[in-house]
Amino acid sequence: MAVEALILSCGTGGGHNSAARAVKEELLRRGHNAVMLDPYTLDPTWKAAHVGSFYVFTAKYFPYAFGAAYNLGTWLSRLPITSPMYFANRKAARKLGEYLKENRYDVIAMTHFYPAEMVTFLRRKGYDLPPTVFIGTDYTCTPFTMETQCDKYVIPAEDLRDEYINQGAKSEQLLPYGIPVSRAFEPEEADKPELKRRLGLSPDKRCVIVAGGSMGAGNMKRLVKRLTVYGREKTDTQFVIICGTNKKLQKVLTDMTDSNDAFKIIGYTDRMSGYMAAADVFVTKPGGLSSTEAAVTGVPMIHMPSIPGCETRNLRYFESHGMSLSLKGRSIEDALDRLENGRECREMIRNQRRFISSSAGRICDLLEKIGNNDGKKVL
């Protein structure tokens, strides 16, 4: 029997939406019906883009203010108070409630804290809701997550269970399935030189992919300047710089590298899985989703300095599990030289295989089970 699933996300960076799309993609592949919705779009007096753009703007241009706000949230979440975001989302929650009265679903999944707060508001107001599943997309329990009232919480890893429990979760609510990524990132036996050729790259040169995330965040200009110097010495290396949606950064970097054939500067791409598969080294900010995509692909990874907050926790998790190198206290040149060592690269990929796998299939198994049983016996 086909499940009617609603997947809620919002535009605060690309990771949450990518995770939601991965779940939707898998549900559709199995013959179910899945709707992906940004709940802020339900209110014509709101502009959903404002929610995402304010988040992106703060993270990009005021990272330390963003980090201070995150740390304040972490501290406040330890107190017996309700998150300010719960109250801020009441209007959007009421609109979501109206939508759910007109559109019936068997199960609701959400990949962001804000929709989870909306669902919590509706539950407290007595709305008749189907089973609900929160899907974490960072390797930490973000502030106030556990004040929400979802039936199940899919968390990125078993060794994060205690952190969630310390913030109020019940062990039986937690499912350590991992972060969902598209099947496109799952490794296949491939001819890497041919993959490079298809992307317009030299098949014989080492390929370093640099991505700042969908926001193009990170001090990319300084990094690319150093890479141009490094590239003069390492003539067997080519660089692809992915700027995401930051068109201004794309133009600046294009101008910086205009006469350098070793560099390819691009903006947002829907071929990210292809670039990762072709990469010999992937340099990225420590976003939960992009890091998981790289680990699922199985590519040696270097993490740029993080935006203070959940990215700091992601970086710590990956580096402590031997799945990436951090540029904290290490130069990009040293990190790239270290990953010329085949043994070190193989060990890093082994660790990625050990600790990370795409969870989209297991999440859909859960949604099928609770959606077809109206939540009975499984919640």
TrEMBL record:
It comes from the Bacteria. GO terms for biological process: glycolipid biosynthetic process. Keywords: Glycosyltransferase, Transferase. InterPro entries: Diacylglyc_glucosyltr_N (IPR009695), Glyco_trans_28_C (IPR007235), Glycosyltransf_28_UgtP (IPR050519). One of its GO terms (cellular component) is membrane. Residues 208-332 form the Glycosyl transferase family 28 C-terminal domain. It is found in: Membrane. Residues 16-181 form the Diacylglycerol glucosyltransferase N-terminal domain. Belongs to the glycosyltransferase 28 family. This is Monogalactosyldiacylglycerol synthase C-terminal domain protein. The lineage of its organism: Bacteria, Bacillati, Bacillota, Clostridia, Eubacteriales.
